[in-house]
Amino acid sequence: MGATVEKISSNRVKIAFDIEAERFDAALEKAYLKVRNRVSIPGFRKGHAPRKLIENYYGEGILYEEAFDLVFDEVYGPAVEENKIDVVDHPEIDVQQIGSGKNLQFTCTVYTVPDVKLGEYKGVAVKKEHTLVTDAEVDAKVEEARRKQATQEKVEDRAVREGDTVNLDYAGSIDGVAFAGGTAQGQTLKIGSHTFIPGFEEQMVGMNLGEEKDLQVKFPEDYGASDLAGKDAVFHVKVNEITEEKVPELDDEFAKDISEFDTLDEYRADIRKKLEAEAAARDEDSFTNAVIEKVVSNAEVDIPDAMIERQIDSMVRDFEYRLRAQGLKMEDFMKYTGQDEKQFRDTYREQAEKSVRAHLVLSEIEKAENIQATDEEIDAEIAKLAPQTGKTLDELKATFTENDREYFKGDAVREKAIKMLTAAAVEEQ
């Protein structure tokens, strides 16, 4: 067998095959043994007609497709493997010569993982944010902690006011006639939450414990129940109980109760420190992403559509898995959102293209810089999985195959490459 490889672009190769006539003739004989059971020749039972008679009756070409497939399966895979061709799609086949007693000659044009022409990747200039934590952000965190310590206390010596929680009975009517769902006892309502019909809560402000009152309201025009939408209604309400939220004083005692600190100032300083660490981490992540984006944009790579489609396949499968975890089906999601499969896949296209491009460029940098991962670095990547599984590093490693370890090796190499890029990058002034 002869197979020659020609690179015709950065992401396509052509493999030309020249198969000896004897080999193709043997394939034709095998094809005859299969085809004879599927064709009918007058005067012969199926499977018993001679090859020559079948060829004369249907034409020799009846055996070509079957014979070609037999030869193709034998030669294509080994040629790809021998020449280390990283194919990403099915080949486009063009047959130049086929027939009994002739060499089988054909070509396979196939898309491959594309060449990457790296641009500047060391020392790229990228803007970096330096987020400052404000006093207001610290105050908000302290207030959040304070609210979590709040208690509800009964009120008996004053009327309802904004922010109170009221236990009430109510009965609604329209033109003196009660309507379905308009009556309840012992309901809880936070005044100012705007969970009831507009005007309802506002009219309760000033009511006293045990007081009864008629509230005049109007249902919104777009109310869910069409028989009530836009209608004037009266709700007779009774206040059964009033409670108010009591929050602790902001002082040293508060700090001691909720933290390991003795003073409020120390507690606030710790909150600021944590907020600053979170802000710095976000800034660093943004800087890293900007560096990668700049490095990728500086490179040239022609990505075959098949690679993008494969990435979309993966993203859609992941989305479908998350849907199933919520008890939903993909077809139901499509119906609810009014999308067809193509429209849904297109929502991922830009993201998929960016993901593939970034992967290819970073992989090329890893090769160019000969970045390798040590056993310790691979173990460190595996160890990140430990908290999710409840297993120790050694227990995890014992369950992994060599292929599993190669996956984590790839992660470790990628992390080293990204760290190298960010360390070499400079802040854009």
Please give a structural write-up.
The protein has 429 residues and is α+β, with helices and mostly antiparallel strands. It has 3 domains: 2-112, Alpha-Beta Plaits; 151-246, Chitinase A, domain 3; 264-427, Trigger factor, domain 2. 47% of the residues lie in helices and 21% in strands. It is built from 14 helices and 13 strands. The strands form 4 sheets. Strands 7, 8, 9, 10 and 11 form a 5-stranded antiparallel β-sheet that branches. Strands 1-2-4-3 form a 4-stranded antiparallel β-sheet. The chain has a two-stranded antiparallel ribbon with strand order 5-12. Helix 7 crosses helix 10 (341-368) and helix 11 (375-383) packs across helix 14. The longest helix is centred in the middle third of the chain and has 35 residues, at 264-298. The protein starts with a strand and ends with a strand. The model has no long low-confidence stretch (mean pLDDT 92).
Fourth-tier CATH superfamily name of the largest domain: Trigger factor, C-terminal domain
What is the strand tally? 13
The helix/strand class is alpha+beta
What do the pLDDT scores average to? 92
- Alpha-carbon Rg, integer: 37 Å
Uncertain segments:
none
Task: Tell me the count of domains.
Answer: 3
Question: Biggest sheet, open or closed, and with what strands and sense?
Answer: 5 strands, antiparallel
